[in-house]
Amino acid sequence: MLALSGVDLHVDEGEFVSIVGASGCGKSTLLRLILGLDTDYEGEVRIDGVRVKTPGLDRAIVFQDHRLLPWLNVRSNIAVALRHSPLGKAEKAERVDAQMRLVGLERFSDAYPAQLSGGMAQRVAIARALVNRPRFLLLDEPLGALDALTRLRLQNELLRIVRQEGATAILVTHDVDEAVYLGDRVVVMRPDPGRVATVLSVSGPQTHDRSSPGFIGLRDQVLALLGVAYNGAELSLAREADAREAAPA
Question: Which of 18, 90, 104, 182 sits 20 to 30 Å CA-CA off 173?
Fold first, then answer.
């Protein structure tokens, strides 16, 4: 089964790109190709002109599930990402301390995952992804499992952290508002097979104000491209996709 077809996308250094689309349109597959986990495909993924063939420390990913190791505390869960780093012990400890400060978890360094809220656990996952100072931060629905209020707060935190670290971020999400709020550009994908429908620029400070006409207009444009009519109710593109897949052939 063909997952992606004709995807041609260029991402500039330091850019925050949001990729939005229904389930099954190949968003997560695209991240796996960039990460270097999947290599059986036609075409090329290049970084600075060099073809990606394997995973590397220049790329890191955060998943919807924080995937923390339950037997390790916050400090150790972040430090585990440095196991293949050539840094010395003292330098690794400094890196971990810096990342805990970055995500505001210094006071919870000895806490275990079971003692953390969902939002705190995701902040640990983000810190773990950034501790090697990757050039590219790949985000696969990292806030999708959180409650609405926590999700809004972490959107602001994520934007702050990415800007502060100077990383190039690529976010996959079903949430159109999230895509517009976080992205410098929004890539709209369609399924069967997964393909880029269009790429929209998010320009001007008003487009990052959820109540502004610029934000609302861009959000509605993305929804229209996805074939969804917005009527003020909460939208779930995942449910729409699941319903389509469940329909008889």
Answer: 104
Q: Where are the beta strands (DSSP E) in the chain?
A: 16-20, 46-47, 50-51, 59-62, 136-140, 168-173, 185-190, 195-201
Q: How many CB atoms lie within 10 A of CB 248?
A: 3
Q: Are residues 149 and 231 in the same domain?
A: yes
Residues 54 and 172 in one domain: yes
Find the largest Cα–Cα distance for the chain.
60
pLDDT higher than threshold 60 for residue 151: yes
**Cα 179–242–17 angle (5° rounding)?**
15
Q: Specify the length of the chain in residues.
A: 249
Residues 74-90 have a mean pLDDT of 93
The CATH number covering residue 19 comes to 3.40.50.300
Distances (CA, A) of 39 to 13, 35, 49, 52, 124: 23, 10, 17, 9, 29
pLDDT digits (tens, 9 = 90+) for 136-147: 999 999 998 889
Cα–Cα distances in angstroms (integers) from residue 49 to residues 24, 57, 72, 120, 183, in the given order: 29, 17, 39, 37, 24
Report pTM: 0.85
Interatomic CA distance for residues 193 and 189, integer angstroms: 10
What range defines the domain where residue 48 resides?
1-58+134-249
- Answer yes or no: do 160 and 227 share one domain: yes
Do 149 and 37 share a structural domain?
yes
